[in-house]
Amino acid sequence: MLEKSVKSAFYKCKVSAATTLILLTPVIVVICCINAKTANAWGHLKHLESEFGQATLSYAAVNRHQINYCIEVDARNEQEFSEQSISEQTEMALALWLKVVSSVLNHIVAVHRVDCTSSNLDLEINLAPRALFDGSDLLCEGATRYLLRGAKPHVLIQIDTYYKFNASDTIHNFKQIVDNIGPTRVSLHEAMETANSLKQQAGDIGIEANVNDDVVASSTYPVLLHEIGHGFGLCDTDNDSDIDHERFVQTCDMAYVSSKEMQPESIMKRLNFFYLTDDDQQGVTEVVKRFIIFGKWRVPPPLNHRSSK
């Protein structure tokens, strides 16, 4: 059972701005640190018009009408983070994003779980202690990487199961939070469906489960929902402090942001949402519209060479 302790006003990852975007071919890394303050509503990652665009989930949805994913959980975490529960959360997060993408494409995008050795892999989910930081001073719960190694480019999402968002709490499996809701228990799927349909935020679920807001916000499901947004080509939209702004400029394509002014919050801003806001939906819609030409993913000509009509 999770216990409620003193709430923190915000949780914020600590980051060195120089490490937020790493361009070491053949890997592009988007490391997520979420701020609870003002931000741009949506933005596209840089380099989508390069070979990295072919690793996005948007590319798979447009060209193959299918996304294949796999789950790997480190043996030290199998009891708390069961593959089945992470699979359920992954499929729900994909379903929310693909509902928007499918409406743009006017066709259904299928989702299949496959082995991580599959040659048709589009999305790999890895949960392990300190899996992505390798001794760096970066302290955040998750990161998204575009991998170009091998024959099939794909997205890798890594969640650090040892990440501490405050002095005492590490990241929790969202299923553990759902199991804390009583006296009438609800299934994990029901909890995620309800959170989406009622447009719940971390505070709403925290009240039901009697746990801190930041425990809920730093659990696996909102982390997956956010990171999968990166997988579709969206960037972090924090643009408040100098460090946030530097990260924003490093990772976001300034030609493809909704605004450089204050905008409403969204899941791509902070891990407080259990649904996609209008801004999240518009962002992924614009990714697909930007690249789909005659039903296939095509790189459009540079902005300065396009017709003004």
Order of helices and strands: EEEHEHEEEEHHHHHHEHEE
Question: If helices are DSSP runs of H or I spanning 4 or more residues, what is the number of helices?
Answer: 9
Radius of gyration over C-alpha positions, nearest whole angstrom: 18 Å
Measured between the Cα atoms of the first and last residue, the distance is 59 Å
Low-confidence stretches: 1-25, 33-39, 305-309
Q: What is the mean predicted local confidence, pLDDT?
A: 80
Number of strands: 11
Proportion in β-strands: 15-25%
> What structural category arises from helix and sheet content?
alpha/beta
Largest sheet, strands/sense/barrel? 7 strands, mixed
**How does the overall form come out from the CA principal axes?**
globular
Give the number of domains. 1
Strand order of the largest sheet: 1-2-7-8-6-4-5
Q: What percent of the residues sit in helical stretches (DSSP H or I)?
A: 25-40%
What does this structure look like?
31% of the residues lie in helices and 17% in strands. A hairpin with a 2-residue loop joins strand 10 and strand 11. The protein has one domain. It is an alpha/beta fold. The longest helix is centred in the first third of the chain and has 23 residues. Helix 2 runs parallel beside helix 4 and helix 2 crosses helix 9. The radius of gyration is 18 Å and the shape is globular.
